[in-house]
Design a protein that fits this description.
329 residues; mainly beta; Tachylectin-2, Chain A; five-stranded antiparallel β-sheet; four-stranded antiparallel β-sheet; 21 strands; binds beta-D-mannopyranose
Length: 329
């Protein structure tokens, strides 16, 4: 590997397929996509925009499952191979002694991040009928302890860094509105205690083409020698509505609000029918990636058309080279 993962874990059993011969795209789809759909949960109308992480030799996940009443909820699942999942039909019941936050309105677009000794879940949490960033932690994916919301409404796409930066927890987020936000830039914030967040910094603004309407962090970034490798979603507005594609960036390791490189072209976009047709058309929305520190292999979990979950593959080197060779910075 030319660019090595720093920290990280070995994931020898992660899902993987080699890049198809002749392919030039930096991310390629799993041939068995989609791996999850409404068929996997009776009463749901989709399983998508979900997070997976290595856990006890296999994998654990937090899944966005919308029911047929339209309520957006989070469910836990476990898997031996990262492909076939056993998902709890009951939504996660977050625990808290704090009566100000132990109400549940809705939850969606989870991310899971291991920091020091526990797994943190961040998600788009309903508070006062508005989206903001919910935070909870678990040791075992059975009991989840909910903390204070990180920010005031309206905010979405809260994504933690897997280690403290300058002694503080660090999170990316995207301030929004209460609707289908037609704007959005990516910001960085720090917290000494996972409760009080400040030192807000601009990371990136929207740019041309596929990322011209709004952008938001996707999976928890992977630390590499060349910087934090970040995959993010970029949204454009066509005559038929929003189109959700993916881009990638390298952020400074010590000051992650400094963008070292960022793709001018998108790295992935809705091309297959299960990404173009569904509850919401033309959406590829990444929320997690597995990265094997030994091989540099990466498996990205993404939602397709707000209906199904797919996987796409790349490697640290392929993505790093693509970001650097196609950077707009
Ligand atoms: C965003 C979020 C995502 C969703 C996307 C496309 O605002 O709701 O969960 O995938 O819109 O509908």
């Amino acid at each position: 590997m030319a660019n090595k993962i720093i920290g990280g874990v070995s994931v020898p059993n992660m899902p993987w397929e080699d890049r198809p011969a002749g392919a030039w795209e930096p991310l390629w789809r799993f041939s068995g996509n989609p791996i999850l759909s409404k068929k996997d949960m009776p009463g749901s109308h989709g399983i998508y925009n979900s997070a997976a992480i290595p856990f006890e030799g296999g994998f654990a996940g937090v899944f966005r499952i919308d029911d047929e009443s339209g309520l957006m909820k989070l469910h836990v699942g476990f898997s031996a191979d990262g492909l076939k999942w056993d998902i709890d039909p009951k939504r996660i019941q977050f625990q808290s002694d704090n009566e100000e936050i132990n109400t549940f309105e809705f939850g969606y677009d989870p991310r899971v991040c291991f920091i020091e000794d526990r797994y943190y879940v961040t998600w788009c949490n309903g508070y006062a009928d508005c989206p903001t960033i919910g935070v909870a932690y678990t040791y075992d994916f059975k009991t989840f302890y909910q903390l204070e919301n990180a920010f005031l409404p309206f905010n979405r796409n809260g994504v933690l860094f897997p280690r403290k930066i300058g002694g503080n927890y660090a999170m990316l987020s995207r301030p929004s509105d209460n609707g289908h936000t037609p704007f959005g830039d990516m910001f960085y914030s720090e917290s000494p205690d996972m409760e009080f967040w400040g030192r807000h910094r601009l990371v990136m603004k929207t740019a041309g083409g596929w990322q011209s309407t709004k952008i938001g962090a996707g999976p928890v970034p992977v630390e590499t020698e060349e910087g934090w490798l970040l995959i993010y979603h970029g949204v454009s507005t066509s005559c038929n509505g929003f189109v959700y594609s993916m881009g990638a960036a390298l952020l400074d390791r010590d000051k992650p609000w400094k963008v070292l490189a960022r793709t001018a072209p998108r790295i992935f976009c809705p091309e297959e029918l299960y990404e173009q047709v569904g509850e919401v058309q033309n959406v590829t929305f990444p929320c997690a990636m597995l990265a094997d520190k030994d091989t540099g292999r990466i498996a990205v979990y993404y939602g397709g058309a707000d209906s199904v979950t797919g996987i796409a593959f790349t490697t640290v080197d392929i993505l790093t080279d693509f970001v650097k060779n196609n950077s707009m910075v």
